[in-house]
Amino acid sequence: MPVIGSLVPASLAVAAPAKRDYFKELGVGTFINAAGTYTTLTASLMRPEVVAAIEYASKSFVRLTELHDAVGKRIAELVECEAAMVSSGAAAALTCGTAACVAGKNQEFIRRLPDIEGMKNEVIVQKTHRYGYDHAVRNVGIKFVEVDGAAELERAINPKTAMMLYFNAADKTPVPAEQFIAIAKKHGIPTMNDAAADTPPTGVLKELTKLGFDLVVFSGGKGIRGPQSAGLLLGRKDLIEAARLNCSPYSDSVGRGLKVNKEELLGMMIAVETFVKRDAEAEGREWDRRCKQIMDSVNSVKGVNTEVKTPVISNRVPHIHITWDQSKVKISPKEVVKALREGTPSIEVTPSPADRVIVAVWMLQQGEAEVVAKRIREVLKSAA
Ligand SMILES: *Cc1c(COP(=O)(O)O)cnc(C)c1O
Q1: What is the pLDDT of residue 302?
Q2: Which of 123, 147, 151 minimizes the C-alpha distance to 137?
């Protein structure tokens, strides 16, 4: 038997993954993430278990739909819903979920989208629930019908209604979730809730389908810390099956560009598994420790105040709000953000309003809270 390796010409042999510093080679700067899970800042870092699963998946061929089925089944068990699919992000889940409500499993309809002629083409949404990501719903060719209040919502339902969209983190919700679902059920209209950024806490993954939403959307690469190009669509079995048919790998579908391969599938499954099993209390204690460290350091500059605020629905994790008397500390929040970004190491903070600097501690890595504490203090002190 010849040794296989000897048959491979040296020029084709794949170099062992050397200890190359790719970002440095490219001149692309890395930074300390005191901002949070922003897509343009590459959001979250995958847990080691997720990276290991991706590496594992990268080494074998599998039949993609078989893996999709198996991973969906496992995720549905983990979060206690009827069915689940891994999408290429929450926005992709919005598109596939909408397509499921519009075209269902009808092959002719699936091929024709976003030409929606002859299909149900209206999605009802509360006026206060319109937002940038609803473009992903409009991609299917639907028209939004905006309503204000329960009476208007019920009047808007007609034979053209394909779905009712709900934005979980909306500032104002005239028709709350329970009532929204009750009206939809009364008229047999499927509902979809976008809760993309609403984990942690863990329970949200289970609660929204249990509450009665037919479809629920989550980002994979935000708080769950799965692959950044993955998301979850959870809910009713018939709708998840239809969503799958309206998506990659099926070539002639509106979701063909929203591909997930075996690496994201397995990575996302392990992300959900580790997320639901993680020690949330210990994690919370560590975040509190980081907050205290940064606040103690920053508060030592005269005229500076800090306060911890935890948003109620999205990004439900502690954020430090830093304010100061600009007649004493003569630097604007915008200038502080710039100084942190341009310093060494570079630090990104949460996109902040004009009157303060906001720091999120949950994406910091070991040892970074110390650096952030020191740098913010230095910048403010230099202007005091
Ligand atoms: C982040 C976000 C999305 C998009 O999530 P991706 O996983 O990046 O596609 C959609 N909706 C809301 C409310 C979000 O916060």
Answers
A1: 95
A2: 123
